Amino acid sequence: MVAVVTVATATSPWQPNVISVTGLDAGTSVVTLRRAAGELLAAADVPAEALDSLMRRVIENGFQLTGPIERGDWETVERHRAAIAEHAPELLEAYDALARLTARDTVSQGEPA
Fold first, then answer.
1. Do the Cβ atoms of 37 and 31 come closer than 8 Å?
2. What is the pLDDT of residues 67-113, one digit of tens each?
3. Rounded to whole angstroms, what are the CA distances from 26 to 1, 18, 30, 46, 74?
4. Distance (Å, rounded) from C-alpha 49 to C-alpha 41?
5. Angle between helices 92-104 and 74-87 (to 10 degrees)
6. Which of 13, 19, 76, 82 has the most CB atoms lying inside 10 A of its own CB?
7. Residue 113 to residue 102: CA distance in whole angstroms
8. Cα-based angle 72, 67, 104 (whole degrees, multiple of 5)
9. 19 neighbors 8 (Cβ within 8 angstroms)
């Protein structure tokens, strides 16, 4: 977040707050998502560290969207939802919210779950 703030030039009174919130949201969200996904993996007896290489690849690939939502594969999304509901129901609302945000920016056809 510091790098973002130091290179940004505020051109309006609200801009510094937007820059700060964006940096905080992006950084905090990555940590929170890693923890939540780690909980799901732990439920399947897979170490959370298995996510680390995937997360690095996402960054290295310029945050290119892949996966069932990008493909419009809503059957897979529904299977994901069922697994989350069964093993970590407290994460389902977050999954659904992220799926809606992801679907908003996809080029695929179809409707979100």
1. no
2. 999 999 999 999 999 999 998 999 999 999 999 999 987 765 455 54
3. 9, 12, 6, 26, 26
4. 9
5. 160
6. 19
7. 12
8. 55
9. yes
pLDDT tens digits, one per residue of 12-32: 666 666 666 666 677 888 889
User: In whole angstroms, what is the distance from residue 14 CA to residue 76 CA?
Assistant: 41
For residues 48 and 55, the answer to whether their CB atoms sit within 8 Å is: no
> Tens of pLDDT along 35-75?
999 998 998 899 999 999 999 999 999 988 889 999 999 99
- Rounded distance, CA 103 to CA 70, Å? 7
Q: And the tokens for 88?
A: 């970590």
> Rounded to two decimals, what is the model's pTM?
0.71
